[in-house]
Amino acid sequence: MAFVGAMVVGCTESYLTGYLPQNEYLPGLRIAAPALLLFLVLLLFPNPRVRGGVRITRALPTPTIKGTLVFGGCLVVFAAILATTLSDPDVLTYGQIFPMSIIGMSIVVLTGFSGQISLAQLSLAGIGAIVWAGVGASGNPLALLAVVAVSALVGAVIAIPALRLSGIYLALATTAFTLILDGWIFTMPVDWLFSGGSAEVTPIFAAPRVQLLFSAAVLAALCLLVVWVRRGFFGRRLIAMRDSEAACATLGGRLLVTKVAVFALSAAIAGLGGAMYGMQATTITAEQFNLVAGLPIFLLVIIGGMAAIGAGFFGGVNLAGIMHAVTAIWPGAQHVASLLVGLAGIGMGRNPEGVVPHFRESWSPLRRFWIPLAAIVGALWGLRLLDVVDGWVLTFGSLAAAVALRELARPRARKGAADVPLEWRGVRRPWRPSDREEVLDGLARS
Length: 446
Description:
The structure is a single chain. The chain is an all-alpha fold. The protein folds into three domains: 1-36; 47-350, ABC transporter involved in vitamin B12 uptake, BtuC (Orthogonal Bundle), CATH 1.10.3470; 411-445, no CATH class. 69% of the residues lie in helices and 1% in strands. It contains 19 helices and two strands. The chain has a two-stranded antiparallel sheet with strand order 1-2. The longest helix is centred in the middle third of the chain and has 27 residues, at 255-281.
């Protein structure tokens, strides 16, 4: 079958090279032909194994509205610090943190909540960007409704393979869809596509700093929306489908409607993130939304904790923040910075639940001293606004204060407390969130 497949692909490419009509809309078809064949084969080939998948047995914590409001407020404050302290070129560079975080949030909804794997989220963001470039040329915010509607419609179309595929096969189908967009659709000579190699995007706010704050506010609002969905009936249905599609259907869950709805919702969020990305960059190209560019976002969200609300922001900060900061400090480390994503993926062996849940648990004692921390950060922020210190002093000074206050707030374990057996935890020492995870792991192994 591998030989037959190679023959079909080779003959198809040769036929298209020699006999494809001379049409300005068809040259990209030859490039996208293997991906198109893959997409059709996955849909039509009678292979019962295409429904194979990995069952996730770990329980997902339910996020709280209060915690999400605090997180959203921190996002807005962080954006305000960036907008008031960065130079104009750095605002354009680091302002991409929030659009990238919105795109990462779409992966949290789709993969983290429902267990459906899609590698086409950045391509969906590209669709949102070009729709905004076409209908939002006047900068009217109402055009974002068209972005959301078109992106959701495309996401519903992508859900068609999900009705039959799952796991690695669904990932292959969405990869094929992305390659079709990259090699053929995005290159068509249409005014609202990347026919000239790039597209101009009109932001809602002419000032890049205000646009940065607007992107952060949209991200905070989306966090609340996603938490509301997760805590509601639809969110519980998504978790049930992720745990077992067969059990969900047996209990009356409508898999068809649920899959189409979650793909449409995640695509709408990705399209909105793509529109924000275009507004911040003002000029976009097809290469910014191809498959290779989208893989690091997917990987970083998985590393952050694919079901954690903060995983999207974790991906945006690392991809558009830390990697740029590393190259700014050490200009020769551009290739080294590209290895950070891979090294973080290797580090998942230590924190299989993701970095964000581990980070939240390890830094929870800092809540006791949030007022002193806010005072120190505010003082450093004020000194930066007065040009007394530079941005690096503000950054590393805030980190040093956070680490010192966390160590001060961390409760000191009594001697021998680490050796308390599991059945005595909560009796001989206080119960910790990590103890619950250890109990669940033990039950899963048994």
